[in-house]
Structure formats: structure tokens, C-alpha cells
Specification:
The chain is mainly α. The protein contains ten helices and two strands. Helix 6 crosses helix 9 and helix 9 packs across helix 10.
Length: 264
């Protein structure tokens, strides 16, 4: 007799649990190490599926308990001398089937609940991990924005003039200094009218994020955010923003050494 999809599903679950029992619980350990336990999407789907299945099993057990109570009542009536009809006799004859199913479900349910609990723990861990990643990403983003604004505020006219002549081994071209000036202007909302402050800040944010993400997109004509990011890399490599940095580059051409007193 062909089985319905629901019956087939329940049969496969029973077979899986029986297989688990025969292997001393190793199947459950294997189950908990499956990719779904580490794959958030699949793991959460499986946890929800197990929870729903546990609810179905509990409902089935309640129905069987009610059915058993009715059968026991019929048996009492039969013992009291009441003659049962064919349907009632059929029901009474199914007592062993009802008991077997109840026993099986009582045995299966704790195991499914144990798996469900483990999956729920995994679900909470995944949620905490994702929340931590979101917070770290947001903190990194805010830090990047604030540090960009900070370093732009350090680009004084005096510092730019030093960069044109050479500072800590780095010399910029007029074009590169113009890039810095343009970026400063695009990220300065101090002159915006009050009515335009929201759109101005949105524009500033867009430019700073484009810079932080090193987008291969034009900041202005002929200059990409990635180009600007590379320029800032050079500024940091040469400690341009560190007032306490002491350059160890020596100009040997300016040194005059008297070696006449050195014995050879």
C-alpha cells in the first residue's frame, strides 16, 4: 500500500532514530557535527524543523493517550457485560498497536528534544556571533570616519608646503596636494546652510565611505577614491601626521668626516 508523504517522512525519522540507538548514540554526535550546525541558514532551518516535529510528536502522543483511555473504557464495559459493536471491537483490538506507538514515541521524544536543545544553543551562538560581527563592523566604520576627519584636520597649509619640498623622505607633487585639498573641501560641511545640513552630511559621508572602502570610482574628475587611499597610505608610511616622529634619513653629502687621525 503506498504511503502518504507525511507517513514516509515519519517512517524515515523513526528509522533514523532506530539507527541512532543501534550505534550507541554516535549518529546523534555525527548529526550535531553536520555542516548545518556550522552553516547558520541550514542550522536554523533544521532547529525550527526539529521543534515543529517535536510538537507534532507531542500532539500525536496526546491523541494516542485519549484513544487508549477510550479503549480501556470499552474494555471495562465489555467486562461489565456490555456487548460491543464491530467498530468498538476493532478499537479494542488496536490496544497493543496504541501501546506500541506510545512507547516508541515516549522513547523518541526525549532524543529529539535533546537534539532540538543543542540546535537552539547553536542558534543562539550564531546570533551572538553575528551580532558581535555587526558591532565590530560598525565600530570599525565609525572609527574610520572619525580618523579620516582627524587626519584631514591636520593637513595645514604649513604641512602641505613641507610635503611639497620633502618631509620624512616623502615629497608630493602639486597634483597630489590638490587631491588632498579637494578631498578636504568635499568632506567639509561647516559652511553648509542649516536647511542643507542633512544633504551636506550625506554627501560628506558618501565621500568618506568611498575613501575608506577604496572604491574604484571617481571622487572628482580624474581622481578615484582608490588613488586617494593610496596617497594616504604613503602619508602614514612616512609618519607625516606624527609630530613626534624623528626621521633617521641621513644626508651623507652634507657630512664632513676628518679621518686623518684614524690609524690604518
Amino acid at each position: 500500500t503506498p504511503h502518504s508523504p507525511k507517513q514516509c517522512h515519519h517512517r524515515r525519522v523513526r528509522e533514523a532514530v532506530v539507527s541512532t540507538q543501534s550505534t550507541g548514540g554516535r549518529a546523534f554526535e555525527t548529526f550535531l557535527r553536520m555542516p548545518s550546525a556550522t552553516n547558520p541558514a541550514k542550522g536554523l532551518e533544521m532547529a525550527e524543523g526539529l521543534d515543529r516535529f517535536s510538537q507534532v510528536v507531542e500532539k500525536k502522543m496526546r491523541n494516542l493517550e485519549k484513544r487508549k483511555t477510550k479503549i480501556l473504557d470499552l474494555l471495562q464495559q465489555k467486562k461489565g457485560g456490555k456487548e460491543l459493536n464491530s467498530d468498538q471491537l476493532t478499537s479494542v483490538a488496536s490496544l497493543s498497536y496504541v501501546d506500541a506507538n506510545l512507547e516508541q514515541l515516549r522513547e523518541f521524544l526525549p532524543q529529539f528534544k535533546a537534539i532540538s536543545n543543542e540546535m537552539e544553543k547553536t542558534k543562539k551562538k550564531v546570533k551572538r556571533r553575528e551580532e558581535t560581527k555587526r558591532n565590530e563592523a560598525e565600530n570599525k566604520r565609525v572609527k574610520g570616519i572619525l580618523s579620516t576627519i582627524h587626519y584631514l584636520s591636520k593637513l595645514s597649509q604649513e604641512l602641505k608646503e613641507q610635503l611639497l619640498t620633502g618631509l620624512n623622505g616623502l615629497t608630493l607633487t602639486e597634483t597630489e596636494v590638490t587631491m588632498l585639498d579637494t578631498f578636504y573641501t568635499l568632506t567639509d560641511s561647516s559652511g553648509a546652510k542649516f536647511a542643507d545640513i542633512d544633504s551636506s552630511i550625506e554627501s560628506v559621508s558618501g565621500h568618506i565611505l568611498g575613501f575608506l572602502e577604496r572604491k574604484d570610482k571617481e571622487m572628482c574628475e580624474g581622481v578615484k577614491y582608490s588613488d586617494l587611499a593610496e596617497l594616504f597610505d604613503r602619508l602614514h608610511e612616512h609618519h607625516v601626521f606624527d609630530p613626534d616622529y624623528v626621521s633617521l634619513i641621513l644626508n651623507f653629502d652634507s657630512l664632513s668626516l676628518d679621518i686623518s687621525c684614524c690609524p690604518f
